[in-house]
Amino acid sequence: MRRLAMVGWVLVLCLALGFGASTATGQAVYGSIIGTVTDPQGNAVAGAKVTVTSVTKNTTDETSTNDSGNYSVIHLIPDTYRVKVEGTGFKAYTVPNVLVQVDTATRVDPQLQVGEVTQTVEVTGEVPQLKTDRADVSLDFSSDYVEKLPLVNRNFQSLLLSAPGTQQIGWSHAATENPQGSQQTFVQGQHFSGTGYELDGTDNQDPILGIIVINPNLDSVEEAKITLMNYDAEFGKSIAGLMVASTKSGTNDIHGSAFWFRNSDATQARNPFDASPTLPSSKWNQFGGSVGGAVIKNKLFYFADYQGTRQANGYTNHVTTPMSTVLSTCTASSGLCDLSVYNSLIGGDGKLYNPNSYVQNLADPS
User: Fold this and answer.
1) N or C: which end of the chain has fewer CB within 10 A?
2) What is the pLDDT of residues 112-170, one digit of tens each?
């Protein structure tokens, strides 16, 4: 009974953290919607009610404009939102689709028209993408881009190579200390350890090796942002670049995905330096999927994903088998071997020297 009670308290704590997650982490996880509400003459409208509703989750955030007509709705999970503005003596103003991206502020500046609040003006045009609230230079990748871009071995970190001024170096840490397959990439000419990584607002960089700690499954990434310069002060430890990722959450509707990728010797080219008529056996399989939905509609959601990799690689190599004369003359007692059979295979005058006689030969040049 005591163990069951402990499990129950753990579940209650997890649910409490799930309900309160919107205030538990930093801005690096979320985006925001900001703007200024004005009347037809361009004057600020104070006290207007601004309602932001998630299109996929139907969750709602509300705020009001200040005396200058400004408003901001922060801590929004990257998603598509519907913005509605209502003011006394004005028609309601609605923008049905506003895309909010991670660590980005989307500006919506409604201009209200005089009329009854029961009347609605719906704006169908796209929201301007010009950033005026910050000067960072960055690239944003939506979940659609992340899933469909041809990344080698579906390695999330390969997205870094899409940014200008990046170069992947030709070595990596041993698999025993880098099972996640982190890649070493120079950004803006800086050492790879100078690139910072954030996952859902948490530092995702090994402090010793300087590599990514969790390399997320592509099907779990909602959005990725690569910042090359002028990033916010909260990311001050990064000197080369910054890679921020936000994972998906569930929606009111159940959704999911599945994938399987395979590579084998059937699609590989033969080694041009190997005369063998057959290729060594080689198989690489990567598979997995994701699923998300609602535990309580409009309130509590779940999301889970899995990715597995199985591989068995063969290889070819050239080796030299000692001839019978060499094998018969090499004995432990003498420590010498008759290598004269190789005279025709080496250049020069065909002379072979015993390395153990180096000192003797040096003293007696003859």
Assistant:
1) C
2) 999 887 777 777 766 666 666 666 777 888 888 888 888 878 899 889 888 888 888 88
Cβ-Cβ contacts under 8 Å for 211 (sequence gap 6 or more): 173, 178, 180, 182, 184, 192, 193, 205
Q: 155 and 224 in one domain?
A: yes
Q: Could you tell me the CA-to-CA distances from 60 to 6, 57, 73, 115 in Å, in that order?
A: 34, 9, 11, 25
Q: What is the pLDDT of residues 172-223, one digit of tens each?
A: 888 888 888 888 889 888 888 888 898 988 889 998 888 899 999 999 998 8
Q: In what order do the strands lie in the sheet with 31-36?
A: 70-76, 31-36, 105-107
In a domain, 10, yes or no: no
12-44 tens-digit pLDDT: 444 444 444 433 334 567 889 999 999 999 999
* CATH code of the domain covering residue 230: 2.170.130.10
Clarify whether residues 268 and 220 are in a common domain. Answer: no
Q: Name the pTM for this structure.
A: 0.66
* Range(s) of the domain holding residue 296: 255-313
Q: How many domains does the chain have?
A: 4
Cβ count near 32 (within 10 Å): 18
Q: Is residue 128 part of a domain?
A: no
Three-state secondary structure readout of the chain: CHHHHHHHHHHHHHHHHHHCHHHCCCHHHCEEEEEECECCCCCECCCCEEEEEECCCCCEEEEECCCCCEEEEEEECCEEEEEEEECCCECEEEEEEEEECCCCEEECCCECCECCCCCEEECCCCCCCCCCCCCCEEEEEEHHHHHHCCCHHHCHHHHHHHCCCEEECCCCCCCCCCCCCCCCEEECCECHHHEEEEECCEECECCCCCCECCCCCHHHEEEEEEEEECCCHHHCCCCCEEEEEEECCCCCCCEEEEEEEEEEHHHCCCCCCCCCCCCCCEEEEEEEEEEEEEEECCCEEEEEEEEEEEEEECCCCCCCCCCHHHHHHCCCCCCCCCCHHHHHHCCCCCCCCCHHHHHHHHHCCC
Nearest to 73 by CA among 27, 117, 18: 27
